Amino acid sequence: MKSILNFLLLIILFSASFISCRPKKFNDIGLEPSKSKGLQANWILSHAYVIDEAATSPDKLDITSFYQTKALPTLIFTETTFTALTLGTVKNYFGSGSGTWSFDNNNYPTSLHINYSNNVKDTFLLGGTIRPTDSTLKLKKTFYYYKKGVKNIAYSYIWEFVRQ
Amino acid sequence: MKKLILFISLCVFAILEVNAQAAWIEPGPTTDVRAMCRIYVDLSKVTNTSLAGLTGPFYIWTWNPRELPANDVNVNGTGSQPWKNSNDNLKLTADPTKGPKVYYYEMIPTDFYGVSQGDVYSKGISFLVKPKDGGGYGAPDLKTEDLNIKVLAPIERDTIYTLPKCAYTDEIVTVMYNNPIERNVAMRNLDANDCYLYAKLTLSDTTFVEKASFFDVGTNPSLKMTKITEGLFTGQFKLTMIPREFFAIPAGKTIVSAQFIVRRQNYNGGIDRSVGNNDPKYFECK
């Protein structure tokens, strides 16, 4: 009888040690963050850069201090609308300043399309993901020129905005 | 006859196009050939199919911009029959991330060929790919056709330059002064408060514009350049502007070219100004 009890005790201890070694289940990570909701905010310019795209290793020059000599541009995104407050800024790169917006891909956006109220369209590349937890919105726009009918890359601007 | 010429021309263009796809340079096509580069070849796109059944190793055999002599460590082949004995230093490396038959050779072209960067840009890089034993001597040659890569020179910036190089009257332009490479050694290591820009612009109606005369520049705070203290441009000075506003250029006129000189705040003669930057900078890229 005693040996049976000892045997059972051993089984219990053995099982307990196995159970205690089992990895914990992963917690549910929840739904994928909505990039669309991530964009919906007021954004004010924090940094600006120019890239000389014609250079061999395109160099990024910080021109934030030039922007800071005047009012800083602010972008406002709601669920569907876009407004750019550019009055008094060094230069307006956001067209008529209001319209609607969309991503190229709602789950994994790489570019932001703006359809201005005067029906002019424009596209900005996204420099990073834009979840609700992201505090920076990075937009990039590249400019080209035509020489004898051939399209040549000239320069790009990168604007970084912080969530308000 | 005209049809024959047209046909031959089309064939030549087709061959060139195939070659363009079969070989390339990275990071190029605009590449600093004084830095490490990779010469790539995609053997699935060459027109000579004599290597089709081979799995390697393969070797580069190159003669342009310069064919290396027999005593060079990177000579194409060694021994009495070099074509049948490629130099082990010239073995290609497979790059399966770019394709199943893509290979590359890594080199600093100016060092490898022992030539100037100008030679590389003017002559390009010519090579073919072969196994160690390239056949021949009565047997069929095992090799690709001649592959030619045109390498474009990067922008050579003056001591004073605009960034971007493609500058416009109505866009944001930064005039840069690369003080560390200034040819007037007396001007090097300028103090952050001692760098002023003189600019003379030629407008589309052939009139000239100055913000201040050369001798008044040092008393005009808006012409003071800012020293960059961190990042890629450390030690250089900059002045960012939108030229139309900064120089009060009338509507309807644009800048054709600009001449820039940098000087100290107090000017006591030639030692207090930049030298060798008299080439005008052209605006309105087109």
Quick take:
Chain A has 164 residues and is an alpha+beta fold. Chain A has three helices and nine strands; from the N terminus they run ααββαβββββββ. Chain A has a single domain, classed as Lipocalin (Beta Barrel).
Polypeptide structure, described:
The complex is a heterodimer of chains A (164) and B (286). Chain A has 164 residues and is an alpha+beta fold. Chain A has helices at residues 2-21, 35-39, 64-67; strands at 42-52, 60-62, 74-77, 81-85, 98-103, 111-116, 121-126, 136-147, 150-163. Chain A has one domain: Lipocalin (Beta Barrel). Chain A contains three helices and nine strands; from the N terminus they run H-H-E-E-H-E-E-E-E-E-E-E. The radius of gyration of chain A is 27 Å and the shape is elongated. Chain B is of the alpha+beta class and 286 residues long. Chain B folds into two domains: 2-149, no CATH class; 160-282, Sandwich (Immunoglobulin-like). Chain B contains four helices and 15 strands. Chain B has helices spanning 2-22, 109-113, 117-123, 243-246, and strands at residues 23-26, 37-42, 58-64, 93-94, 102-107, 125-131, 147-149, 160-163, 173-177, 196-203, 208-210, 226-227, 237-241, 255-263, 281-282. The relative contact order of chain B is 0.13. Classes of the chains: A alpha+beta (164), B alpha+beta (286). At the A-B interface, strand 1, strand 2, strand 8 and strand 9 of A face strand 13 of B.
